[in-house]
TrEMBL record:
Domain Peptidase S54 rhomboid: 57-190
Lineage: Bacteria, Bacillati, Actinomycetota, Actinomycetes, Propionibacteriales
Topological category with respect to the lipid bilayer: Multi-pass membrane protein
Protein name: Rhomboid family intramembrane serine protease
Source organism of the structure: Nocardioides kribbensis
GO MF annotation terms: peptidase activity
Amino acid sequence: MSLTTAPTRPRRTWPAALGISLGFVALLWVLELVDALPGVQWDDDGIRPRTGDGLVGVLLAPLLHGGFDHLASNSLLAALLLFLVLLGGIGRGLAATAVVWLLGGLGTWLVSPAGTVHLGASGLVFGWLVYLVLRGFVARRVGQMVLGVVLLVVYGGLLWGVLPGQPGISWQGHLFGALAGAVAAYVVARPGADTSRG
């Protein structure tokens, strides 16, 4: 096994990564503001396990939140982790996000109890965190390994959220988001993966 250092990224990567991550969180706030308007009720459009309509929720759930407190609890960490994911390459970061979004949502749809609705960006947050922790070890890049270890030390306690416990919290969404993050690290960051899009 050989270790390499990450190639220097073009200067334009960090402004694009920052713009996309802040834009994503701003979109979440706009959607929640609209959802708070009289007559608007999007919270039922999340993941409803093993129903046809619930599959649409796989696409919508990370964009919807159960109120401003729920959104606020996800916003800062979502912006930070998405920025760090995209900083490793916009194309790779978007590919990793797509894997986490879809696989995490499908896993939640498959195993969660019937009659429940799952929504919120926390599945993405768990997926991005696990992706960042594992990415450097999969890619064999020292700088990314160091970042992964730092993130694990600072935010690793969040990963207890994959276990059942707190009522009203979708541990299934957390668990399958985290597992999807591991899959994304292997698929996107492994040596030989297509990195032609950055």
